Amino acid sequence: MQNNNLFNLEGRVAIITGGAGLLASEHALALTAFGAKVMLADVNDEKCRAAANLLQQQGADVTAAVCDVTSKQSWQDLLKQTLDTFGRVDILVNNAGFTNQSKTAGFTRGFEDFPLEDWNAIMNVNLTGTFLGCQVIGSFMVKQGSGSIINIASLYGVISPNHKIYPGTGITQPVAYSVSKHGVIGLTKYLATLWAEKGVRVNSLTPGGIFNNHEGLFLERFKQLNPAGRMSQKEELRGAIVYLASDAASHVIGHNMIVDGGWTAW
Ligand SMILES: NC(=O)c1ccc[n+]([C@@H]2O[C@H](COP(=O)([O-])OP(=O)(O)OC[C@H]3O[C@@H](n4cnc5c(N)ncnc54)[C@H](O)[C@@H]3O)[C@@H](O)[C@H]2O)c1
């Protein structure tokens, strides 16, 4: 029988972490446009509520929640709140992270004197936070017998940052960011194969550089190095999120979907 509703997410509930940041709202708009309800969670309560308010004004069915992804208890509270609010959970987008927008204190320091505290903090949010989310929410999905987990990785979890584009730009890519994102892709494959027969699909989504008012030398160098000749627009992740969350990807398991304008292709 032909199915014209491969991407339909009606009746499904998604948790998105890092809800106060740049990309979570895009993920939420994508999923709600196809019928899902979203629990938008962040450690920054005030900013997350503001983001949820903006999304609600655009007609998206979004509720804000507080979650510190580095705390197992916080994940358990988030699961309970999601079940109390929506009665189920079908999709988890592990999106929280320390990034160039939300830096740790020593984020910009070079490798040779990169502070251990920053290494630990970045690994804790980007990798351990994803591990805990998969453990708490994924285990629930396994009992339920269905679910889709999308771990947000990065270009720099696939390849090294190109160290030559940063000097003189004020932008850096610290070692812990790249290593944590390589770990996210490894964790994704481990769980994808562990849960493949349990109805829970685990995949990662790798964005390239997302344009966020970048300018000057960095932008020029980036454009030169990207086959597409530009950075990604944040809206350009929407299709991949919906695809991985939906039944259109029913046999897509352990995949790392790269949306980078071709950066990793040459
Ligand atoms: N923006 C890009 O160019 C880009 C490129 C590749 C990958 N990514 C990845 O996409 C994801 C989202 O990126 P973004 O640009 O929206 O980042 P962002 O910095 O704008 O937002 C990250 C959010 O994570 C939250 N957060 C930090 N620690 C947390 C914790 N302990 N618990 C819960 N939330 C916490 C922050 O409060 C912030 O709201 C990240 O995982 C990032 O690594 C982004």
- CATH architecture descriptor: 3-Layer(aba) Sandwich
Helix/strand structural class: alpha/beta
| CATH class category name | Alpha Beta
Terminal-residue CA separation = 40 Å
The dominant shape is: globular
Bound molecules: nicotinamide-adenine-dinucleotide
Major sheet attributes: 7 strands, parallel
Give the mean pLDDT: 96
How many helical elements?
Answer: 7
Order of helix and strand elements from N to C terminus: EHEHEHEHEHEHHE
As a whole number of angstroms, the C-alpha radius of gyration is: 18 Å
Q: Assign the CATH topology.
A: Rossmann fold
Strand order of the largest sheet: 3-2-1-4-5-6-7
How would you name the CATH homologous superfamily?
Answer: NAD(P)-binding Rossmann-like Domain
Describe this structure in words.
With 266 residues, the protein is an alpha/beta fold. It has one domain (13-265): NAD(P)-binding Rossmann-like Domain (Rossmann fold), CATH 3.40.50.720. It contains 7 helices and 7 strands, in the order βαβαβαβαβαβααβ. Strands 3-2-1-4-5-6-7 form a 7-stranded parallel β-sheet, with helices on both faces. Strand 1, helix 1 (24-33) and strand 2 form a beta-alpha-beta unit. Bound molecules: nicotinamide-adenine-dinucleotide.
List keywords for this structure.
266 residues, alpha/beta, Rossmann fold, seven-stranded parallel beta sheet, 7 helices, 40% helix, 14% strand, binds nicotinamide-adenine-dinucleotide
